[in-house]
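Example record for the data management plan.
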Amino acid sequence: MSSTTVDKKRFIVLGMGSFGSALAARLAVNGCRVTAVDQRKERLEPLKNELYEAIIGDATDREVLENLPIRNVNAVFISLGESISRSLLATLHVKELGARNVVVKGVTHEHGKLLEHVGADRVVFPEEEVARELADRMTWPNVLDYLPIDPEYSVAEVSMPASLTGKTLAEANLRSRIGVHVMGLKDVMTGKFEMFPDGQTKLLEEQVLLVVGREAELTSLRELQ
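Corresponding structural encoding:
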């Protein structure tokens, strides 16, 4: 067996609706080994050549799940549409069968709390998350990228505000004025990245700020002209 095969990440996707199918397809494109389970053959058919395994079966049936390599995969994704009871049951089963990391598509926030109670490691709300990201990008087009790293802090790439151009990092004083920490500067013309620049580094129009901060602090930075 080649080292490439050994090193491939392995995932199980339970439920091949729109979200589950898109997730499985992207994991396959990324070179991962994906086992997908759905009761409806027509949902598995479009991806059968990309999937490592396509299994027709009930994702809430413990016997079906017992025949999957649940203990050995990097994560189990559960996307069972609007059925709260089915996703809860599937989550309970895979956790009891030894899944290391279980990510579940939530229906409501109350549903999310129940999923966490039965062992889900992460609950996602795709429509809500995409809507929030799209709204933020349209509101603040100067924010090039945004990554939450815990419930309180996020990392963002922000185009250089005109009011900071020509100042040194010390003169900009973003940590004291706004509360964000500048982790790096990227020159968009050359691609050069400077990690943890010192206070005497001059800020230029063609640079992008890589910063970390709380939501309110990042909002203040976004709104700088």
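Summary line stored alongside the record: The radius of gyration is 22 Å.
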